[in-house]
Design goal:
The complex is a heterodimer of chains A (about 200) and B (about 100). Chain A is of the alpha+beta class and about 200 residues long. Chain A has seven helices and seven strands; from the N terminus they run E-E-H-E-E-H-E-E-E-H-H-H-H-H. The longest helix of chain B has 17 residues. The chains are: A alpha+beta (about 200), B mainly alpha (about 100).
Chain lengths: ~200, ~100
């Protein structure tokens, strides 16, 4: 045994105790904790309704965690500056640029990616295919996720509202005129399904 | 894509060092959904292309054709030839001597 360690330090307040029993009693009584604090960088996330627990580094973005580490490659990285919207994910009901959000900030949040939207059988996917709202397809996941977030809080958007919501997503192939048509079609389908 | 090239996009170089100053999507502006009006596509089937069955690619040609159409349109409107892209409002005011 290492003789240099003669005292045990409390990880919450730095107070030292002589024995392990004394430390345990101190942690239970003074800090009302059940044990040691969680190690730094551990986060819990709900991604597409499944619970995950990650150990992340402070510099990892949400995009890096989900695309590179988890392997959900739907969201795409294009500009890495929060300018293009290709990496959009829905975090707690809001469309967020995942390349600009640190993973360590997202502890306890609910994330929805384009894979989750497709798995739910959302009518947006079919509407996008029917109206051919893509050419190369790199920006399309970002558009779909942003449209889904729009339809979540506004089930029957006008064309102006759709343009306003999707103006933050860039598309180099200029598929812009097709997106409002596709979103309107999906909204009509959702309305019909509710009735 | 063509409208975007004709009206907004410009690569800015530092005149001394030659370094690109706007090599990212925040400073190199491309058109968003708000900048474009409705588009109607007319396919002219000539069958005179060099590919098999007389095919010819049309997708990316827009990028050169639209600016080439935009400059004569501006000439028709203001009577001054623009010899530099993108055609921004500032350049038009300068050409009209109203800067």
């Amino acid at each position: 045994m290492n003789k240099e360690i003669t005292k045990l330090t409390c990880p919450y307040c730095g107070e030292t105790k002589d024995t392990a029993e004394g430390l345990r009693e101190h942690v239970f009584k003074s800090h009302k904790a059940r044990g040691l604090p969680a190690p730094e960088g551990r986060i819990k996330l709900i991604i597409n309704r499944a619970e995950y627990e990650f150990h992340v580094k402070p510099n990892w973005t949400l995009y890096y965690l989900i695309h590179d580490k988890l392997g959900l490659t739907g969201a795409k990285q294009f500009c890495d500056r929060g300018a293009c919207g290709s990496c959009t994910m829905i975090v707690d009901g809001k469309p967020v640029l995942s390349c600009m959000m640190l993973a360590i900030e997202c502890d306890g949040k609910t994330v929805e990616t384009v894979e989750g939207i497709a798995a739910d059988g959302h009518p947006l996917i079919e509407a996008y295919v029917n109206n051919h709202a893509m050419q190369c397809g790199y920006c399309t996941p970002g558009f779909v996720v942003t449209s889904k977030a729009l339809l979540d809080h506004n089930p029957d958007p006008t064309e102006e509202e759709i343009v306003e919501a999707l103006a933050g997503n860039l598309c180099r192939c200029s598929t812009y005129p097709q997106h409002p048509i596709a979103v309107r079609e999906a909204a009509a389908k959702m309305k019909a399904a509710k009735k | 894509m063509g409208v975007s090239r004709a009206k907004f996009e410009e690569v800015v170089h530092d005149p001394v060092t030659g370094v690109i100053l706007n090599g990212n999507l925040l400073d190199y502006k491309i058109a968003t959904m708000k900048d474009l009006g409705p588009v109607s596509t007319i396919l002219v089937e000539t069958g005179l292309g060099y590919g098999p069955y007389g095919l010819i690619g049309v997708g990316e040609d827009i990028g050169t054709v639209i600016p080439g159409l935009m400059a004569p349109a501006v000439y028709n409107a203001i009577g001054v030839w623009m010899d530099d892209f993108p055609i921004t409002p500032g350049k038009i005011l300068k050409a009209l001597g109203k800067e």
